[in-house]
Amino acid sequence: MILKDIFHSDLVKEIEESGNLKQFAAGDVIVNMDAYIKHIPVVISGSIKVIRTEEDGREILLYYLTPGESCIVSILAGMKNETSKIKAIVEEDAEIMLIPSDKAKEWVKNYPEWTDFIFNLYQKRFEELLDVVNSVAFQKIDARLLHLIKQKTQLYQSKEISVTHQKLADELGITREATSRVLKQMEKDHLVVLSRNKIELL
Questions:
Q1: For the chain, which residues make up each domain, given as ranges?
Q2: What is the pLDDT along the chain (202 residues), one digit of tens a residue?
Q3: Which CATH architecture fits 139-201?
Q4: For the HTH crp-type domain, which residue ranges apply (predicted)?
């Protein structure tokens, strides 16, 4: 199991004894907005996307979780018994270890490597969130869209991805019409090839 690549044997044993290993399908919601965090997800296989949802229904993608990673927002909310400020959705079928929040808090005192794990996640997510802020504030839609497509090809390890224009629009917080218009221009510029619900990065 991937846990053994991250933690030493004592902590791995505690995680396996305290956690609940579950299978989730793409589209399943792992963490909901405004919900109390009772279990912290650690991705064993597959991936999760973490998004922020506004009251008007608009969404923006914050970052992806891949094997060996967890959601720092969920960890902090769970340990402080606060509600979630994000929504976590399974991007591709995933196996996830659900760790009780009280255990995660306890391990901060007992396992320095768990604390290091949290701090490393915090640093990585902070840098990714800075990228999101930078792209929303300073980059044009075409640059943001191309970056998102590249992220997805890396995530799925394939130059061709199955995704709708609406899904890309939702993750960028823009309209489907704008997304389709930019994608068509990107195809004219020989950056991508478009087909029904599929995009190939050239």
A1: 3-137, 139-201
A2: 677 778 888 888 888 888 899 999 999 999 888 888 899 899 999 999 888 877 666 778 888 898 989 988 888 888 888 888 888 999 889 999 999 998 888 898 888 898 898 888 888 888 777 777 766 655 678 888 888 888 888 888 888 888 888 888 888 878 888 888 888 888 888 888 888 888 888 8
A3: Orthogonal Bundle (1.10)
A4: 139-202
CA 153, CA 200: separation in Å to the nearest integer?
9
pTM of the model: 0.70
DSSP letter at 182?
H
Residue 97 near residue 44 (C-beta atoms within 8 A): yes
Provide DSSP, 116-175: HHHHHHHHHHHHHHHHHHHHHHH--HHHHHHHHHHHHHHHHTSSEEE--HHHHHHHHTS-
- DSSP tag of 57: S
Q: Which CATH architecture fits 3-137?
A: Sandwich (2.60)
Token output for 18:
């305290």
**Which single residue is written with the structure tokens 């060996």?**
68
Distance CA(178)–CA(169), nearest Å, equals: 8
Structural tokens at position 188? 């004219």
